Amino acid sequence: MTNQNPEQEPVIDPAAFEGRFASTGEVAEAAAEDSAAASAADGTAAEDVLADAISAELAERTSDLQRLTAEYANYRRRVERDRKATIDNAKAQVVGELLAVLDDLDRARAHGDLESGPLKGVADKLVTALEKQGLVEFGSEGEPFDPTLHEAVQHEGSGHDPVIGMVMRKGYRFGERVLRHALVGVTDGVADLAADSGAAQADSTNAGTDAAGAE
For the chain, what is the radius of gyration of the CA atoms? Predict the structure, then answer.
């Protein structure tokens, strides 16, 4: 007869714990994956922030470069404009000093002294050189009177359509600058003369008609 020990220790089956240990490993692996995903997400967010910062910095630097380029272009245009103005002023001053010489040549030409000879060649060369630099003369008989170009010292007629009747001194313009106004005498234009002639003829006709009626 076999004696049974009521206090015999229970038998533990290791197979019962295999599932539990496997579940614990899966949890650890899942936690590691979650941590890696979180780290990757943080890394992506950091990269996006860095990319936005670089883009903003690049846009600001591009704007600064464009502004500097525009300022430099304006500076170059201003310098070129000032340089041209300085050159034009110097030329105008030199040409202005030669207007008296041109007046003497005009008087000599009017007296027939420049019809031939070496002086004629010198005068022609001087006038040609000044015209190439931009000198333009104005003020000749028959031109419409312009108070911005001509200075009238004599008036004849009614003055409705004034034209230049006599030139006492030529005017000169250098580029857009008037170096000297022309001294002229002003008279009526062709239209005014024709109108005055027609009015005088009408008055004469009316006078003749009245005289015939009186007889």
Answer: 53
* pLDDT digit string, tens, across residues 162-196: 999 999 999 999 988 999 999 999 998 765 444 44
User: Among 215, 124, 134, which residue's Cα sits nearest to residue 177?
Assistant: 134
136-207: CATH topology is: Nucleotide Exchange Factor Grpe; Chain A, domain 2 (2.30.22)
How confident is the model over 14-67, as pLDDT tens digits?
Answer: 555 455 544 555 655 666 666 666 666 666 778 888 888 898 889 999 999 999
Question: pTM above the 0.90 mark?
Answer: no
Residue 119 · residue 113 · CB < 8 Å: yes
What are the residue ranges spanned by the domains of the chain?
Answer: 21-96, 98-133, 136-207
